[in-house]
Amino acid sequence: MTPAARISAAINLVDRILDGELADRALAGWGRKNRYAGSKDRAAIADLVYEVLRRKRSLAALGGGETGRALLLGYVREVGSAPDSLFGAGPYAPSELTDAERSNGRLPEANSSESADFPEWLWPDIQTSLGERAQQVAEQMRRRAPVHLRINLARLDRDSAIEELSSEGIVARPHALSPSAVEVVEGARKIKNARSYLDGKIELQDASSQAVADMVPIETGEKLLDFCAGGGGKTLAIAGRVEGTFFAYDVDQRRMKDLPARAARAKVTVNPLSAPEVKQKSPYDTILIDAPCTGSGSWRRDPQGKWLLTREKLRRILDIQQEILDQSAPLVRSQGHLVYATCSLLECENGRQVDAFLSRHREYSLKTQKRFTPLDGGDGFYCAVLRRD
After folding, report:
1. What phi and psi values does residue 271 have, to the nearest 5 degrees?
2. Active-site option among 228, 293, 343, 348
3. What secondary structure letter does DSSP report for 354?
4. Is 293 a catalytic residue?
5. What is the 3-state secondary structure (H, E, C) of 213-244?
């Protein structure tokens, strides 16, 4: 496909996404219906779509509108390409620009929610949560996220993993956020076919997520429950550094369907639990709550989530987080730990949620807490370690 044909395909996809279709489904459906497009074309079109979603507001200003066509025009202008070399450039290109389109477009307002590419209603919350770092974080959020891997340290050390990856054309370097983390700088598309990935020696996992797993206190032989397990990535990370008994629960059991295979590949044991079993197996030495959240810290990877969030959805998320914290609190043994984590930048989901929990549960105290932002080199995360006294 020509660059102009890729722009045309991206315009169509962005319009579908703006109409409410989920981005990953739209892209998968387009690939199935357009078999002529090779893997490089599909990857390039996906990159275009996600670049537009990350910077939708600033590109709308540059392109003079909020349609797929205007947003891609804004993108072309932002990257410094000549619009006439793509619009109207051949049979599969988007149609030629109109006079109105040529004259429309402006620079986004400086130091605003528009230039930060956040919804206007949410930007004050981001500024309150991040303070003077808000604009810098927003700039990082407008860019593609780096690719990080977690080394299964129970199987091999980080230097050996980097060497093994290099032999398969994947260039990686150590990441400062965790002893198990590396950043892939070349060959990322080869990871899922790499021997070390198929053998369970490495996993795809953000470096900040790994740093959160490192904060979870557990001693050899102790019992840990991952209360909102999903795919179980953090439990697998913890199991890679200490031997213990690991349980996983998720209110939607389907989210854990890949966990047994992932655990087997990593050569660790994680026991999925049903809702009744969660209480039966209590008390636990440690409970990890990787709470449902806005996902605002990982919007570089899922930029559509930024535009789908509403105040009402945020209120529901806060209620769910409170409910999960209160539900988990009695299941921790005396002197045990409750670890609360989110992949959110918002203080209402993080420190304020923990402060409210501590006011309701005087038997708990805050041991430590840490906030991560993209300025640290990974996604935005928050982690609080609470001890039951």
Report:
1. -100, 110
2. 343
3. H
4. no
5. HHHCCCCCCCEEEECCCCCCHHHHHHHCCCCC
